[in-house]
Amino acid sequence: MVTLDVCFYDVFDLHPMNEYELYIRNFGSSNAVQAATQSNEDRTDQDMQTDVWPTDVKWVQCPPDQFTDSGSGNPLTHSTGHLRSNSKILDVVAKVDSVRLSNFLQRSSQVMDILLEESTAAMGISSGFAEQSSLNISQGVTTLQQQKNLSGRQIRDVCYSTTDYRLLLVAYSMASGEQEKDILGDKGILCLWQLSDPTVPYRVLVCEGDPTCCCFAPTKPYLVFAGTGDGSVLAWNLQESPSLHRKVIIDGQEILLRYPSYSTSGIYTLKGTHDEPIRNIMALHQYRPAREDNWHAALGVSSELEGQSFQVASLDESGWMHIWAVVELRSESITASELDFGMAIGGRLKLIRSTGFKISLPRSQTRSAVTDLRVLDCKFRTNDIDRFIVGTDIGTIIHESRFRNRCNPRTYNLKETTIAQIDGVSSLDFCPHDPRLFLAGYTSGMVGMFAANEATAIMRWTVSKGPVRLVRWSPHRPAVFYVLDETGTLHVWDLSESEAQATQVVKATKTGDNGRIVTFALSPTIVSAASTVSHANLAAASGRNATIMLGYADGTMEVHLLDSTLAERAIDEEHVLASYVGGTRVSQNAGKEDEEMYENDHDSVYDA
């Protein structure tokens, strides 16, 4: 049997209350008020399982002080001997504003960079042309060293900065052949060169498309614009922080690749974008002459800029021209442009499309056979942001106005009766010394000189059997212009010596192993207040160091110092151009001889 045992436990034990405790329980809290409650909120430390990382303050000093250039701790709070002043220890706690320090270093580094470059350049570039040239138009040559990442690329366009003749911009196509597999093989490249250092590019600009044309800003040399084959308009701000861009290592060398600060590529919500390859991109700005009755002053070094604002015009093959306003945003204005998908992250440059229109022939001159008009080149008049001319693939030059004013004459033609039905205008250029004259190069090998008030050419020459690639008027001599044909031959005309034929010819066989010349550019003489060096010194140096930049088929770039005969103007050279303006120097052999030249397939050179 199971027997249960009995156990006793005291669960609650309360001692009997005395009289005082009984009184307090009944009457002690009748007149009591709760004044405060205390908890453990004043405890500031908390327990955690994460270990505290040991930290130390490091400092560096350049140049070193007493053979010490680095150390630990705050030197301003240490009682070191070299920090004593009048036996008093500098007990000052250094306060550093990292944001202001970063802004200061970013701006000051750019200033120091420019000062160092100017110091090395020393205002003269003649020492860089020590290498002798075999070309008869050159006193010396310097070659821009070919980079490995530029091999397999063709030169699309070249230009000088309008504010500094020592800055060159070269646009390269996408890589072809084996170079397509490189890290930059599927991207277009634009290189900014300095004549003071032809060994490496000063800046390397990268874009997704194939660049077709490029230009500098007229008043701000740190802004660069380009057009691509897919119709995109690109803009770079060279003053942006390098931290916003990408760095790559090619052949052990670190290269900073600057992507566009603004791009219209892929912005399908933007109305009025280009759908065809861009033929020309031009920065529009007007110079104010010192005397309004002397238009030569508008092109001299004494000219003043009419404000700092400017616009950019882009023209594609189909004839659509768009005008873009260039806006540089401040830091407080960036939030207003968050919805603009064309701006790069951290960028402050913005393009705003102001207007757009399509170039077309006048109704009275429209040919029934012409169904699709193609544009080959475009040029604005010198020191004019309104009037411009457009070269087409049917041989007609269209005179247009940006503000839609009436233009007279409406079109320009090589002759009154066009014999060749298809003769495209491949290149145009206004005279920088007299805006009433301009040159036109044709795909038939002809070159015509036009007066702005005459519908037909006042002078005509047959330069080559092949197409004319480029015509440029010399900014250094009013009577000299240059013509480049398809074979790579460069023809130099001096109207003060001969009107019948070129005075100097640079044939493709003289250019060596680089291949034929595919493009060229002439150094400017216009010097604006936006230059980073002395206005007067740079103006004088640009006159002494007239250069021509030649681009070859293999991608090589050469900068030649022009011969004194092509760089120094004669005393009465302006009178040579004045005789052409009124149409008094019209060719006497315009007519049957021109027809015979076309029929003989340009076998004879036209005697003007």
From TrEMBL:
SMART domains to which the protein is assigned, alphabetical: WD40
Region described as Disordered: 588-608
MF terms (GO), sorted A to Z: dynein heavy chain binding; dynein light chain binding
Coiled-coil intervals, chain numbering: none
InterPro entries (alphabetical): DYNC2I1 (IPR042505), WD40/YVTN_repeat-like_dom_sf (IPR015943), WD40_repeat_dom_sf (IPR036322), WD40_rpt (IPR001680)
GO biological process: one example: intraciliary transport
Biased composition (Basic and acidic residues): 599-608
Entry's Gene Ontology cellular component terms: cilium; cytoplasmic dynein complex
Name of the protein: Uncharacterized protein
Annotated source species: Spizellomyces punctatus (strain DAOM BR117)
